[in-house]
């Protein structure tokens, strides 16, 4: 099942390239045109790039949703369910392929970030821990995407989810510090799961984080683990339950 998903990359290279290029364009736009990193003491680029890595992982649920809804509408998943195969192989194959794609996206974004001046400063072990937290966030959002795809049922409804994903993504500390926002908004932003991951990876990379001294900011690495685990605990069983009921 994983090979099947990866084979689509060779058959649809334009789709893969666009998926990898879109976050790169966002990074370049906020680095050179819009001006991310507002309210940061230090290099704004070193603040912005880790946040964009977290945003890329969260926005990956859109591609997951689109792929799953396409398979649902073409009857592919129904055919798989009729074959003598492990029922969970469809979901495992989907998740494995999406995680491999996320690794590729991280590699591309890291290379572009390095090209625009971003560096990490705390050694290889901390950098690998940061990558682990980013992939944990992606794994959690993957199951959100699989569940929502089976609820939506049609690729056209993915656009409706995108309308919600974008505000949630921007309601974080990816582009600006909570200290630069109104007090109530900054408090909401700090408790966004994406903010926890962005703050945690900044700490691990040794980049400026715009620390506010709040509990959420001081315990960002803990929250960067707890938030994804909580999301997985909710949406993984929901996705499995919804998948089991597809043919009923």
From TrEMBL:
Organism placement in taxonomy: Bacteria, Bacillati, Actinomycetota, Actinomycetes, Kitasatosporales
UniProt topology in membrane: Multi-pass membrane protein
Pfam family, one: ABC2_membrane
Subcellular location as annotated: Cell membrane; Membrane
PANTHER family (UniProt xref): NODULATION PROTEIN J (PTHR43229:SF2)
Record keywords, A-Z: Antibiotic resistance, Cell membrane, Membrane, Transmembrane, Transmembrane helix, Transport
Family note: Belongs to the ABC-2 integral membrane protein family.
Domain ABC transmembrane type-2 positions: 14-246
Transmembrane segments: 12-35, 47-68, 89-112, 124-145, 157-176, 224-244
Primary location recorded for the protein, binned into one broad class: membrane
Domain of life: Bacteria
Name of the featured protein: Transport permease protein
């Amino acid at each position: 099942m994983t090979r099947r998903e990866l084979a689509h990359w060779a058959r649809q290279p334009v789709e893969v390239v666009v998926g990898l290029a879109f976050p790169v364009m966002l990074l370049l736009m906020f680095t050179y045109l819009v001006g991310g990193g507002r309210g940061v003491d230090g290099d704004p680029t070193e603040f912005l790039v880790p946040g964009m890595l977290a945003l890329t992982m969260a926005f990956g649920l859109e591609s997951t949703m689109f792929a799953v809804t396409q398979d649902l509408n073409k009857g592919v998943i129904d055919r798989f369910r009729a074959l003598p195969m492990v029922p969970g192989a469809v979901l495992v194959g989907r998740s494995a392929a999406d995680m491999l794609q996320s690794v590729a996206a991280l590699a591309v974004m890291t290379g572009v970030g390095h090209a625009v001046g971003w560096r990490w400063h705390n050694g290889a072990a901390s950098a690998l821990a940061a990558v682990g937290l980013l992939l944990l966030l992606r794994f959690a959002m993957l199951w959100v995407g699989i569940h929502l795809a089976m609820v939506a049922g049609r690729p056209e409804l993915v656009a409706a989810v995108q309308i919600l994903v974008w505000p949630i993504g921007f309601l974080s500390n990816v582009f600006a510090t909570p200290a630069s926002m109104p007090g109530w908004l900054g408090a909401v932003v700090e408790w966004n799961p994406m903010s926890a991951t962005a703050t945690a990876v900044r700490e691990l990379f040794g980049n400026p984080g715009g620390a506010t001294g709040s509990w959420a900011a001081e315990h960002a690495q803990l929250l960067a683990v707890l938030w994804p685990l909580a999301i997985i605990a909710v949406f993984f069983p929901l996705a499995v339950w919804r998948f089991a009921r597809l043919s009923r």
